[in-house]
Amino acid sequence: GPSAAPSPLPPGGTARPTAPPTGPPSPAPSGGPTLAPSATMEPSLEPTEAPTAEPTGAPSLGPSDGPSGAPSSSPSSSPTSSPSVSPTSSPTLTPPGTFPHHTLTSWNQSTFTVNSSSTVTVTLSTYDLHAVKSIGYLCTHPGDTYLGLSTGSSSGVTLARTDDPGSVGSPLGVVPIGRDSPLPVRGGGGGGGGGGGGPGGFVPDSTPPRLVAFDVDHDLGVLRLVFDEPVNVKREASPASVLYGKEMEGNHRVGAEVIDVKLDGSDLGYVNSRGLGGYLVLDSFAFSDMAFVPNAVEEIPDGAALPVRSVVPDGTGPVVTGWGLDLSLGTLSLNFSEPVDQGTLRVSGLAVQGSRRRGDTGGYNLTEDTIVVGVERGGARLVLDLAMFRTDLNALKVSMGVGVASDLASSFLTVEGGAVEDFSGNGCEGIGDGTALKAEGYRGDGEDPNLLSFDLETGDEEAEDYGVLTLHFDEPVDPQSVSVGGLTLGDSGLGAAEVDTLNLARSTVSATTPSFDVEVTLGAEDLAHVRGSATMQQGRGTTFLTVGQGAARDVSGNELGGVDRLMLGPVLLRVTFSMVTGEESVALVFSELVDTGSFDASGVTLHGGAGGGGDDGEGDAGEDAPGEGEGYTLRDSELSAATAGQPKASVLTVELGELDVRAIKEDGALGKSRSSTVIVLEDHLLLDTSATPNPVVPIGRGENRVVDQYKADGTPPRLLDVRVDMDKNLIRIEFDEPIEAGSVGVTQMTLQSGAALADNAPGLSHTLVDSVYAGGNNRTIVLEIGREDEIEIKAKFGLCDRGRSTCFFSCRADTFQDTALVKNSFASISSTSAYQIDEFVADTTAPILENFDIDLNTNKMTLEFDEPVKVNSFKPWGFRIQSKRSKGSHSNLPNLSNTTATASANGTNIVIDLLLSDVETIILETTLAIDRVTTFIVMDAGSFVDMEDNDVVAIVDGAAKAARSYTPDSIPPVCLGYEIDMNAGTVKLEYSEYVSIRATDVTMLSFVNDTMNTGLAHTLGESSLLKQTVNNTKTVEIELGKADLNSLKDIEGLAIEKNNTYLSFAVGFVSDMSGNNNEEVPLTSALLASKYYVDVTPPVLTYFTMNMDLGILTMYFSETMSIHNIVYGDIRLMNKKKAVNAETVKLTSNVLTTGSTSQSHILSLQLAPSDFVEVKGKGIGQGLNSTWLTLGPAAIYDMVGLPAVEIVESGITGGASMRAQDVTFDMTAPGVEKFRIDRLAKELYLFFSEPIVVVTQKGFLLGNGTASVNLGNCSVVLGADSTDATFNLASTFYSGVLNRTVDMWDLMVQLGVEKGPGTGVDIVLSVVQSSFRDLAPVPNSAGVLSDKAEDSSVCTCEGAGAYVKEVCTSRNDVVCEPCTACGDLGAYYELASCVGTYDTQCVACGTCQHLYYPSSECSGSLDTVCSLCVECAEHEYETSPCSAGQNRICASCQVCTYLSAGQEVACNAMSQSWRKKNCCFDSEGTQVACAKVDFANLGLQARNGRHHWAFPDTTPKVEGYGIHEWTG
């Protein structure tokens, strides 16, 4: 933020950027609001408690009577209250007829950007932006945002609120952009109407304002807040504060970045009295910015308070601005210009006089008997009590008679300079004689006088006042107003019947001067009556006085109220009680002088009030209920030296003794406040000063006499002594006064190893946690170190273990508080300057193992000692675990392994990490550590030592310690991995611990193909078994049953390889030696096999069966078989075992039915009708000996592609045809499936369901529904497979009946057979039962067939993708075949399409010859396209050959640097000449032919040498031979 905020502008001023001031915040300039206190800050001068009726003529103490020097009120421009915040609507505070606007001025600080679309973007300067925001109701939403552009000498851009240039004060009296009104913002419009949208538009302010700095002026009482943008001061959330700097330009501005808050008296007093002002926190609701929807100020929370930027200290002393006097209540009020510190007031520096000059009327200097009883308005107003000790009140009342303080006009005050100070230590200005300050308010004596006590001397005739009744009043009384007839002596108090009374009407008063004491001289008869009374002279408590109403008047004419039976003797009027440290005292104010020598402290007993409640400072003692208990009687208290030095006095100051102070402070309900301090007086407390001394009038407990003033203890307790005893675990802390037991903050105390232990520095320390203080209120606090604290302290080597030098004490604030009602806290002792303890007792006790726990879950054993031990002293071989208290022959772990370790720190709880070998030894011992009663420990002495090197106490065999707690192994066994062997049919699982084989249930294992729960899964059944029976194993081996193995193989995609072999477990598959079942491993979390061994054993056909009734061949293999790629032609059925003399049938395509899961090794073939017919026709399946099978070498495969073992026919070396294990005979009668008539050939065709034999030809009949002809005379021919028969309807026969040859066709004509279907004659076939039979060993005869309709041939192929292989005939249906797909044949393409009776014509794809490559692949109806391979040109080499469907790729060899070794090999020979021409360079880098490099370099040397071509050669001639000249 800025270093200082700019001063507010004067009204009407023009905003301009200014340099920030360098000094402290200053008041606003002339014309602006001042920083002087307002009238609302001026303390009231009215008394704390006004009388019910003010005396007539008494001046009013209202504000109008304030002193002329009182601070002026705030300027009218300062608002009196803050308007409510309206977060959802724009403010409506714009004064009528105004025109909020702002003209941009800081062009030199603005930024302009012009883009290609002629848009000018102006980034406002910080000044302009803040100026716009500070104007209320301008640019807060589209409806109050308009732009005006003026030209000429006063050109500029103005932002305005409305589009009316004629508004009052409008700067837009120029023609704006293309129209008569300002341009609205895009997206807004006049009156809030909508405008066209588009880029930009109006973007409201959504950034919260932030307080960047604040200044405090303690002198003026001003808090200056500096924000990073204007905030709306009319929404300010502190209506009690006075704000300045609001109206910055005209009366449109309601926002400001700098706000001055004038602190009222209470706030300023609080701040100054506590030294506040260095940091500031701010709630988010305190301020908001000027946005239409206001943004709350950014919060400054506690913990991140903002430090003050600048501080102006208070350098001005306070001034008494006004005062008031109330003689009725006995109070004097002082008003100051600022809060003052009441503790610095010196009352003796104040004087009351009758005029401005004391010499004119006289005056009176107040004494220290006047005390402060009220602090108001943060200390800007003090109320003094003159009546507590009445010294000054009585003196003023006497002075009234000489014209001092007799009315408002005679009441003036002088003040000595420095008589009081403000909270910064500035003394007040003096008010001297001659300039005395006149009272602003005055109330005269309107109270009736009171009779306090009386003396009566009738015993000592030598006494000066013998025969005199002395009346003691609380104020001067006119003696001549005393009516002796209103005085009556009696012998008993209230509540008792009087025996003797005497009216003193015959007595006289001779004095004439007003006085507090009035002597009444008894008449002779009255004196004689008193002396002769048998009851009035008995002793103490036998003389009482009754005074009638109006029996006396004070100097102001106020009449005495009635007094009923006042006891003889001094009366306690007022009591003050002080528990201020060093000033513990009781001040007793009596109605008359008493004999100080007769004082007996035991005559004072203190009681607590009703529950010891809080002190309201003004409560009526009579309203308090009597306290509980016997109270406390003073024991060692004495009169102060000043009081004891006076033989007689009316005010006695009793200094409380040490024992009394401690007892009072230790009592939780006594002497804590005014209402909890009730005083009881015994009559032996003291005597008055009469010749015949009268004892003090006693005060009983029932009167509940609460002290009149209470001064609380404001001094924190002081630390005297700290002692630490680590042997008895005690901490003793001694203070100079009792500590409240309930306040002892044990968890705020810390023991540390050094005096300076910074938070971030290394060192040992411990803050108490469970230590306790069980005592009451006491000055000696003895803490019992808790178990946890003892452990922590002792566990830290170097902390409180080697004497005082390693033990220091620190604590936080509020750890200790005294017993005052408002607690005084002992100041903190910082850990950086800790208190070294005064005495230290070291630990000398040997540690004891109190308990031990064993946890076989975590393999840990926990040892619990009664004090911390050193972990580095651990000796594992000193420990033994056994199953009984005495080892004997029982199972045990001899000792922990030597390498057993612990990761614990020094402490009482040591956790031993048991080695796995030890734990497994324990687990395998079935009687050791199976529960708590079978777990004991033996420990050698010295297996551990404590922090003081004391050996641990041994635990010996025979007295072994039982485990406190035993945690069995409850962790389920975990499968670490498994392997599966699909060849051997085994699964081997490895576990994390020993498992119990006897509890294994393999049916809880399931194999899945993945973890996605796709449904491919198999759960093992009862056929799978465990391979081993030993318990102490971590390996579980399972032999998969045949059913499970086949099931696994049956599911395609499951357990084919490692990556699709996962295993899941149900709960209870296996349990460990402790009986813990394995946890469920669901399918979604199944374990992938660690190893997978494939099946390498070929399958074997074990046997087969034949069902001749259903035509099903069932084959049983040794394992699951694949249904794919079956070569049916390699499956051959025979009626004999040797094919050489047997009928054989090779199967064609059949309908395959397979078993599933455990039956997946079974394959059932539903023989094709043609195969079934052939089988029956060749006598196969007539019995076991006529049913044989052979299997080709690749007929059928298992799931991993291994072919079944070949079955070679008998008769061939090594061959053995397989005979059926079972044959089911044909039990189904044959039937006629259809018949057709060829009317041209005159033949009848019958088609049977299986091969048949015609038994009775006459059983076949053709008819037309009314007549029929049997076919017994027709010739019949059976088909090759005996499934069809042809009847010749043109046969002739001799009829004996007709005696002639008959033509069968003639009979057919008579039936209408020749007409054919659809001619109205329906030819039907009937067959008599048993007219034909099948070929079964036990033949099945046909049943009855009645009126079967003629069937027509099917001559077309249904559906697409088929062609006619054989056309239909009158006998046969059309034969259709699927069209061949050329792609299915391999490298073929389609030459002609499949249509009609022609199949697809497929031609093998062509292949490219040498020097050609396939540029277009063979596919669909297109053959391969071959293109000529590219030949590499000169100086090129082949990078990729012409092959694999790609042309040759060539690259240039004309490079100076080879890019690869292959390029170098290919190009080295062919590019040598080119490289010699192009790849050589002279010394300057110029490219030259390689042969000319040397020559070029010589030329360069010559050019650069001394022989220059442009100058003569000066080289001396050298004698000798030239080149080629010497031949020697």
Offer a concise description of the structure:
By secondary structure, the chain is mainly beta. The chain is built from 15 helices and 98 strands.
The major sheet is characterized as: 6 strands, mixed
Query: Hey, roughly how much beta strand do the residues contain?
Result: 25-35%
Structural class: mainly beta
What separation lies between the terminal Cα atoms? 101 Å
Can you walk me through this structure?
The chain has 1528 residues and is mainly beta. The strands form 28 sheets. Strands 32, 33, 36, 37, 39 and 40 form a six-stranded mixed β-sheet that branches. Strands 58, 59, 62, 63, 65 and 67 form a six-stranded mixed β-sheet that branches. The chain contains 15 helices and 98 strands.
Task: Summarize the helices and strands and which ones pair or pack.
Blueprint: E1 101-103, E2 111-114, E3 120-123, H1 126-134, E4 146-150, E5 156-160, E6 183-184, E7 211-217, E8 222-232, E9 242-244, E10 255-262, H2 265-273, E11 279-280, E12 306-307, E13 310-312, E14 320-326, E15 331-336, E16 340-341, E17 350-353, H3 358-361, E18 363-365, E19 371-376, E20 381-385, H4 391-399, E21 412-415, E22 421-422, E23 437-438, E24 441-443, E25 451-457, E26 468-477, E27 487-490, E28 501-503, E29 515-521, H5 524-532, E30 544-547, E31 563-567, E32 572-578, E33 585-595, E34 604-607, E35 632-633, E36 638-639, H6 641-644, E37 648-655, H7 658-666, E38 678-681, E39 687-688, E40 709-711, E41 719-725, E42 730-739, E43 749-752, E44 765-767, E45 778-784, H8 787-795, E46 808-811, E47 835-836, E48 839-841, E49 849-855, E50 860-869, E51 879-882, E52 892-893, E53 901-902, E54 907-913, H9 916-924, E55 936-939, E56 961-962, E57 965-967, E58 975-981, E59 986-996, E60 1005-1008, E61 1017-1019, E62 1025-1026, E63 1033-1039, H10 1042-1050, E64 1062-1065, E65 1071-1072, E66 1087-1088, E67 1091-1093, E68 1101-1107, E69 1112-1117, E70 1131-1134, ...
Parallel strand pairs: 7-13, 14-24, 32-40, 41-48, 49-57, 58-67, 68-76
Antiparallel strand pairs: 1-5, 2-3, 4-5, 4-6, 7-8, 8-10, 9-10, 11-12, 14-15, 15-20, 16-22, 17-18, 17-21, 19-20, 21-23, 25-26, 26-29, 27-28, 27-30, 30-31, 32-33, 33-37, 33-39, 34-35, 34-38, 36-37, 41-42, 42-45, 43-44, 43-46, 46-47, 49-50, 50-54, 51-52, 51-55, 53-54, 55-56, 58-59, 59-63, 59-65, ...
